[in-house]
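In response to the reviewer comment on reproducibility (Comment 2.3), we provide here a single inverse folding case reported in full, input and output, so that an independent group could reproduce the run without further information from us. The structure tokens appear first.
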């Protein structure tokens, strides 16, 4: 299938425009594939959280001996776009985000399931107010406000087509509630990391390995990276902020922890690795080799889900043997960051 045909097929699925399958053999194979799930869904008293995960071959296997498999909660269905469009003022805070970002809005319930947490009523209310603050800031941007005034929800969806909205939390559940840092993320989600059986990874000796997310906050993350071959990340982020008419402190360069956290949360929620691109993702995290010498920058590479963490002087370069562009994935937060010019390295 060509790229244009594939894109049109995806758009048709999103809009509920489903065409019959012309190939009888393919139709039979697909029907046979989903029949067990349909039988379970139509059985009286069956659970209502059956998803496509049960179709995978791994579904018949038992849980891993060294890690209990999480029970996935059914993701709330996205609004159907072929019906009447609502007025944004009448929607709840989360529904506003759902209508604009669709499945790329990761709700608090999904974060609770992924992180193994349970927010109390006070925490939930505070987190929703923070979400409302970020949405209000985004809705006030000139390129967004004109579509909002015209009730043009498809136009808003197009603006945020390369964005994902997620919640960064400073704790997660690993044998009890633990700080959300690289060490505990590796313990909780080993499938995202390469294993070293004999020698530890170099970054385990660095201070940033145990740094935690400072405070809970929402972030609008772009998964189209900014190419930093000719301009440094801070210059590219300044241009990104100018393009969105945002004050520069609201546009952040991710730390290595934030970059990996975003990849894990989006991968678990969407079952797709949207940040896995031909990119050496530059972060705001720096370190000194063995505590001396010039500062080195930490950058991330992801391939086949696995995340690798590297460090070097200066920016990584594109090579014919490793065709990865130096880039930066911007994120927008409601609260201003203390982003300053990167140190000379």
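Designed residues, in position order:
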């Amino acid at each position: 299938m060509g790229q244009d045909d594939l894109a049109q097929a995806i758009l048709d699925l999103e809009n509920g425009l489903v065409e019959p399958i012309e190939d009888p053999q393919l139709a039979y194979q697909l029907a046979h594939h989903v029949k067990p799930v349909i039988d379970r869904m139509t059985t009286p008293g069956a659970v209502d959280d059956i998803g496509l995960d049960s179709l995978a071959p791994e579904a018949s296997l038992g849980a891993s001996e060294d890690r209990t498999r999480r029970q996935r909660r059914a993701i709330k269905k996205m609004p159907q776009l072929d019906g009447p469009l609502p007025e944004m003022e009448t929607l709840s805070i989360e529904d506003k985000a759902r209508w604009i970002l669709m499945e790329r809005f990761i709700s608090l319930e999904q974060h609770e399931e992924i992180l193994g947490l349970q927010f109390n009523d006070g925490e939930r209310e505070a987190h929703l107010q923070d979400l409302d603050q970020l949405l209000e800031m985004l809705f006030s941007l000139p390129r967004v406000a004109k579509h909002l005034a015209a009730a043009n929800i498809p136009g808003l969806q197009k603006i945020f087509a390369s964005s994902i909205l997620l919640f960064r939390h400073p704790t997660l559940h690993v044998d009890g509630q633990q700080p959300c840092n690289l060490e505990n993320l590796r313990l909780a989600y080993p499938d995202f990391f390469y294993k070293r059986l004999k020698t530890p990874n170099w970054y385990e000796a660095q201070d940033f390995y145990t740094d935690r997310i400072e405070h809970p906050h929402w972030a609008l993350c772009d998964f189209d990276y900014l190419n930093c071959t000719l301009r440094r990340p801070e210059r590219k982020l300044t241009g990104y902020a100018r393009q969105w008419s945002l004050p520069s402190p609201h546009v952040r360069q991710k730390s290595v922890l934030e970059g990996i956290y975003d990849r894990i949360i989006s991968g678990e929620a969407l079952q797709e690795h949207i940040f896995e691109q031909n990119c050496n993702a530059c972060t705001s995290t720096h370190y000194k080799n063995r505590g001396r010498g010039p500062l080195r920058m930490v950058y991330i590479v992801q391939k086949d889900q696995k995340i690798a963490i590297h460090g070097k002087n200066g920016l990584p370069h594109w090579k014919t043997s490793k065709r990865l562009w130096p880039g930066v994935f911007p994120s927008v937060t409601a609260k201003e960051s203390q982003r300053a010019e990167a140190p000379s390295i």
